[in-house]
Amino acid sequence: MQDNRTPSPRQQAASRQISRSVRTRVRLFPDILVVVLALLVLFFAIKPNLTAPAAQQDDAGLTGLQVEGSTPILSELMALNKGAYTAGDGNYYDWIEIYNPTGENFNLEGYTLSDNIEKLDKYVFPATVLSPGAYLIVFASGLSEAPTQGELHAPFKLSSMGESVYLCDPYGNILDQITFDALGIDAVHARTGTQEWEQLTYYTPGYPNTKEGYAAYEKTRVAPASPVKLNEIMSSNSITIADEDGDYADWVELYNSSDEPINLYNYGLSDDTGRTKQWVFPDVTLQGGEYLMIYLSGKNRVDPAGNLHANFRLNSYEGTVLFSNPQGQIIEQVQVDNLATDTSYGRVEGTDQWQNYSHPTPGYPNTEEGFNALQPSMYADMTTPVIISEVMNNNQTFLKDDETGAYYNWVELYNRSGDTVSLNGWMLS
Asked: How far apart are CA 21 and CA 14, in angstroms?
C-alpha cells in the first residue's frame, strides 16, 4: 500500500540542505581537479632540473654544459704553483679559476667545488656574485679559512699527478668537470674553447686564456714604487767578500732610500721572470738608509740573525735579478750580462742609472768613499797588515808598462795598518 503522507516542514528543510551540499561539492570538484593537474604539470616540468645531471660526459673525458652558457664554468687550474701566482699572504697555493659566460650577474652562494666525486661539497661558496664575463680565483690551499680577507680558499689541494675537479649546483648536480693529467711546475690546464682544454706554457689567472690575456696579466705584476730597491749585484765573486763558510758566492744588495724602516717579510728574490718569488725573505727589517746584502749561494739560509742566503745562483755570463713585493709584483728587474770576475753592477749613487764597478761596495754606498769604508770590515778577522786589494787578470787597456808598452795583468796590495811594513821575504803565488 503506497504511503501518501506529506513530509513535515523540518524534513523538507533538511532535504533542501543536503541537496545544496551535494550540489556545492559537485561544483567544487572540477576546480580542485584543475589545481591538482596544474601542480603535477609544473612538478614534472621542473623535475629534470632538480634531479637530472646538468652535465654530459663526452668521449674525451671532458664534461660540457647541458645548457650552453647558462651557468659559470671551470676555466683554468694550476696544480703545482711554485712561483706563478701568489695569494695575499705571499704563499703560492694551487688554484682553480671560474668563469661566468652568461650575460647576467651570477650568485654562487651554495654552489660547491670538489676534487672528489664521492664528496662534491668539499668547498661551499659563500655569497659571491660573479659579474658577466668575469673570472674568479679559488685557491686550493687546503686551508679551512682564508688567510687574507676577500680571497676564497678551498679546504683541499690539487694533485700535480692529475685528478678531477667538479663544479656543482646547490643540489649536488655536476655543472662542469675536468679531468687533467700530470702538470709540471707552474703549468696550467686551461679551457681554450667551449669544450677544448689543453696545457699551456703561460698562465692567465683572472684573464682570458690567450696570449693577449697573458700580456694583460703580466701588467698587473708590476708593483707600485718602493723605497727599497736593488742597489748592487755581483755574479762572479772570487776574492771580494766571503760568507761565514769562507765561500765566495754571488751576492745582491738592497738599499732602503727612505727614512722609515721597511719589513721585508714575504718579499721575494729571483732570477726567473716566471717565478718572481723563487726565494722569500724571512722576518727581517731594513732600517731607513741601510743596506742589506744577500748571498746568491744556493744555500737557502733564512735566519734573520745571520747572513741571508738565497736558494739560487747567478749565471756569470747572462742573468736577471728580480725583487718583488709580498704579492709577487715586480718592484725592480735588472739584467746582468758578462760581468768580469769581482766586478759589480750597481746603481750610480742618487740616480736610476747603473754601471760596472771595479771597486765593489757590498753594504756601503757605490762610491770610492764607500769602497774605502768597506776595506777595514772585509779584513777585520785577519791579522796580516798587508792584504790583496785588487786583481786584474785580463788587462787590455789599463796601466801600460812604460818600458815595454805592454798591458800586463797585475795584483794590488794594500797596507791597512798605520805603520810601515817591509815586504822582504813575503811571497805571491
From this structure: 11
pLDDT digits (tens, 9 = 90+) for 138-180: 999 999 999 888 999 999 999 999 999 999 999 999 999 999 9
Distance of alpha carbon 332 from alpha carbon 325, whole angstroms: 10
- With cell 700580456, the residue in question is 215
pLDDT in tens, 312-367: 999 888 889 999 998 889 999 999 998 999 999 999 998 999 999 999 999 999 99
Are 268 and 321 in contact, with CB atoms under 8 Å apart?
A: no
Q: What is the pTM of this model?
A: 0.63
- For residues 121 and 111, the answer to whether their CB atoms sit within 8 Å is no
Residue keyed to cell 696579466: 217
Q: Is the dihedral of CA 68, 73, 79, 84 positive or negative?
A: positive
